[in-house]
Write a structure and sequence with these properties.
CATH architecture of the largest domain: Distorted Sandwich
Subunit structure: Heterodimer of a large membrane-associated beta subunit and a small pyruvoyl-containing alpha subunit.
Order of helices and strands: EHHEEEEEEHEEEEEEEEE
Enzyme class: lyase
Shape: elongated
Organism: Sphingobacterium griseoflavum
EC number: 4.1.1.65
Strand order of the largest sheet: 11-7-8-9-13-5-4-15
Number of domains: 2
CATH class of the largest domain: Mainly Beta
Largest sheet: 8 strands, antiparallel
Oligomer: single chain
Number of strands: 16
CATH topology of the largest domain: Glucose Permease (Domain IIA)
Family: Belongs to the phosphatidylserine decarboxylase family. PSD-A subfamily.
Structural class: alpha+beta
Length: about 220
């Protein structure tokens, strides 16, 4: 287990808050109740940040015939739908909701070459809202594997998530299970798979990024 680099600023701010607030409480000789409240609040905030930005070490079992889960969370959508941004045709959509208590590292579902990447500014609807996939701030990535099969995956900001980080660009060569991004404070990841792909999860299933096999080609 390690602490993710995206959390350095947040951790520094929380530690600064804890130091300043407790120093002021001592300087102005605040009551023991106030001092203990600040001690507990400071400890709570530090624990929350450490928990949220944790990044477990994982051994990835790569398989070109499978689609690995891109994020920790819960499956909230499995349906056939029209993907209008890139494919312009029918695809199987699988959506994973990431709560604030989940690991928020995002991982490549397949290996291949990034054939499309685009960042979209947008709204901050709750991540489970039906229009969050098209109206919220988001990044869209398409990876083509060695069999020329393309999978689209999309990071979507939520009501709390106000920063999406993506580390890849078009023409990058990516490996299945490797980290491609991070979303802060709760959000959603959508997968769009070719029709005929066998989905191996059900709505409500808890899934693990880089471990759970979402689907099989």
């Amino acid at each position: 287990m390690k602490f993710h680099k995206e959390g350095y600023t947040s951790l520094a701010l929380v530690i600064l808050f804890a130091f300043v607030s407790n120093a002021l409480a001592n300087y102005y000789d605040a009551s023991p109740y106030v001092q203990w409240f600040l001690y507990i609040l400071s400890a709570f905030l530090i624990i929350v940040i450490l928990q949220f930005f944790r990044s477990p070490n994982k051994k990835i079992a790569m398989d070109d015939g499978t689609v690995l889960c891109p994020a920790d969370g819960k499956v909230v959508v499995i349906e056939e739908t029209i993907e209008n941004e890139y494919f312009q045709d029918s695809r199987i959509q699988v959506s994973i909701f990431m709560s604030p208590i989940n690991v928020h590292v995002n991982r490549n579902p397949i290996s291949g070459i990034v054939s499309y990447f685009k960042y979209h500014p947008g709204k901050f609807l709750v991540a489970w809202h039906p229009k969050s996939s098209t109206d919220n701030e988001r990044t869209t990535v398409v990876v083509k594997n060695q069999s020329n099969v393309e999978v689209l995956f999309r990071q979507i900001a939520g009501a709390m998530a106000r920063r999406i980080v993506c580390y890849i660009a078009e023409q990058d060569v990516v490996k299945q299970g490797e980290e491609f991004g991070f979303i802060k404070f709760g959000s959603r990841v959508d997968l769009f798979l070719p029709l005929g792909t066998k989905v191996n999860v059900n709505i409500g299933d808890k899934v693990i990024g880089g471990k759970t096999v979402i689907a099989t080609f």
